[in-house]
Structure formats: structure tokens, C-alpha cells
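Preliminary data (for renewal application), protoporphyrin IX containing FE complex.
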Amino acid sequence: MTQGTLLRQITDYANRADPYPLYAELRKTPVSQQGDGLFVVSTYWEIESLLHDPRISSDVRNLSPQAAGALPQEEEATALPPSFLRLDPPEHDRLRRMTMRPFGPPHSPRRVYNMRGELARIVSDLVDGFGDRNQVDLVDDFSYPFPVTVICRLLGIPHEDEARFHSWADTIAASLDPNPDEDPRERRRVAQQARTELGVYLSGLIDERRGAPGDDMLSALVTGHGPDGQMTPMEVLSTAALLLIAGHETTVNLIANGMLTLLRNPDVLKRLRDDPQLAVPLVEELLRFEPPVQLLPQRTTLADIDIADTTIPMGASVWLVLASGNRDPQRFLDPDRFDPDRRDNQHLGFGSGIHNCFGAPLARLEAQLALTELARRLGNPRLVEDPPPYRQNAVLRGPRHLNIAFDGLRA
Ligand code: HEM
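Predicted structure:
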């Protein structure tokens, strides 16, 4: 199979349920050139090295016109400027530092920790909501509403508005999918429209917070100032949109992939029920074994880069296949085995380097609490179909529905 065919197979929906054998093929050429000048990197050390390489840019404005056409630049030329996910230093670092001030160390080290009680309450209310049903769709009934409720509380966005931004968030997440069968310009147009509408919605809230700040992140972004000064209104908007979207689909997929994996490994599910402490290494192993972000398709080289006997020329588009790096036998012992006792587990599930996941502490806590509570409360849970139907998206990969049958809820 040629590398081009291989990539097409990876993006092909027919292989969504199990792309891992295709990644194993891909790793035979650690850095492969595709027909259209795209370079795909699939081995752990090469991905790790490029994620730390300042000659690789995340800035959307550096994407080649070809890549910009093939990939939706949903932030381009819309009401919203690029968020810090799509910027390079020094702009990236400044905005990330300013966003971190109200979220994590050194200024707000307790923020996520202090949310524990509230998160546990949301989880247990959602499980209570299963009522006396003996079958639920874990995605719609649990793993979607949970992180969405949490990110709304964190940002200070009224949960009643969820229905309004649900479809914008879905559209923006779908636009990340490099689906070769779709017209990229049409996809970009739709994504830009969604971003604009989300921007208009958020700007109303931001105006409110400016007048009457609360203790939420949106208020902190609007009013906060430190050594880096204050964010401009447009910077607040694009940062709030980034947090809202990033806090959506990814954690949904981690919880759904997690429950699917546990139901396929009932011995581990039983261990988690008996020992909630297992949740910590278990979630790390899930991030390695079934990462919600499978690949990063938006990097550009700023210089010629020699790597793995290949020269990636300046201006090339690069895809970093995190999920393949996570299964690289050169890095992980017996990588296709799901092993929550794995000690050496420096996975790529949250990326690495300067863009490593900003929300990782929150995402970890959410998944740990969610899976522990599901394991504890569901009586004899089992999958109704395996594999479940997946979302179209090859980048943010996870089940669209996860129907689970069970014999009642434990108290
Ligand atoms: C399981 C859930 C999650 C996964 C697997 C995940 C994964 C990732 C990955 C792989 C990156 C690196 C992107 C890159 O290098 O281009 C990233 C960045 C980011 N994530 Fe997450 N994420 C998750 C949850 C969250 C949550 C809950 C938030 C918000 C609270 C969040 C906010 C961000 C932000 C703001 C960035 C950009 C960081 C930067 O550019 O410096 N993520 N995430």
C-alpha cells in the first residue's frame, strides 16, 4: 500500500473504529511524504522532537495556500482572530500566560482542585438522571453534558444557552476533520459562519461581565491585568471561544472511549469499582491507548528540517499522528495492550511542548471522576453494540453513540 493510499484509508470513515493497524503500517516510514507535499510523522520520538522544535509553526497565517484550502482555517478573516492554539511565540506565550493566571499555577493553583466537589455533584446528578431506565446512550446522556456543564461553569456561561452554542461547537470541531471527500472551501465557510455567530454570542456576555464581574474565567479574562497588560476585546473573544470548544468534544471522547475500553476489559472495570485510586493511572493509559485527539494536522515548517533520514522542506505542511506515536513499539512495551498498570507512560495524548494541553488538569479530573462513578453505580453494565457508531471526525475521534445496558443503579 502506498503512503498516500494509507492516509486516505486513515481518514476514511470505514476505518474509524480501528485505525491502529493502519498506523502500524504508517510507522514503517516514520516521516512520509504524501503526493501533495504533505509530510506525515507517525513515530513517537520524531513527533516528540517536532513538537519541541521552534522551526515548526502552529500559526495559521503560515499555512501554505494549498494546506489552507485543504484544511479549514476557521479562524481566518472572520470576526475572530486566531486563538493562541494557532499562534507562535511570542504572541502565543503572552496569551497563554494571561489565560493561565485565573486557571492554574502560579496565580490560581487551587482552581481545578476546588472544583472537585462541584464536578462530583454534576456526575452524580447525571447518573441519577438515568432513572429507572436499563439502557442509556452514554454519549448523549452523560459524556457530552458533563464536560459542557463544567466548561460553562468555569467560563461563567449560562447553561441554558447550551442549545445555542451546541451546534456552533459541533460545526467548528467537525471543521478540523481533514475529510478529502468534502469541499474544503465549503467546510471553511460553514466553520467561519459558526465562529462568527459564537463570537457575537460571547461578545454579549463579555460586555455583561465587564459591567458586573463574577469569579468566573470570562470575568477574569475581561478585567485581569498583570505584567502582560490586559487582553484586547478580540483576544478575550478568541480565547473564550477556544476554551469553550477545546473543553467540549475532547473530554466527551475521553469519557466515551474510556467506558468503551472498560466494558471491553471487564476485569479492569471491576478493579476500578473496588479501588477508585486506579482511576489515575487508568486515565493516563486511556490517553495513550485511545487518545481523543488522534492527530495534529495544522503545522508548517519555517525552515528545512532533517529528521529520520528525510528533509522536510521549509513551508511544508506537517501532520503529527499522536495516536500512532502512542502505539510505537520503539517507545512503549507491548503498545497494543491496554494496561492501566503501565509505569512508563509519557503519552502524547495531550500533545507536548509549548502547545501542550492547557486544560489537561481539568480533563484528567473530569475523566477520573466520571469513570469511577460509572463503574461504581451501574449494575452489570454491558455494551449493546461493539464497535459503536463513531463520529465522522478522524482528528477528534470517538463514538457518536455508546449504548449501554445495565441492571439498575447502585445507590
Ligand atoms: C481529554 C480531553 C482533552 C484532550 C485529549 C486535549 C488534547 C489537547 C492537545 C493534543 C492539545 C495540543 C494541540 C496542539 O499542539 O496543537 C491541546 C491544546 C489545548 N487544549 Fe486540550 N485537550 C483536552 C481537554 C481540554 C480542556 C477541558 C480544555 C479547556 C479547559 C482544553 C484547552 C486546551 C487549550 C486552550 C489548548 C491550546 C494550548 C496552546 O496552544 O498553548 N483542553 N489539547
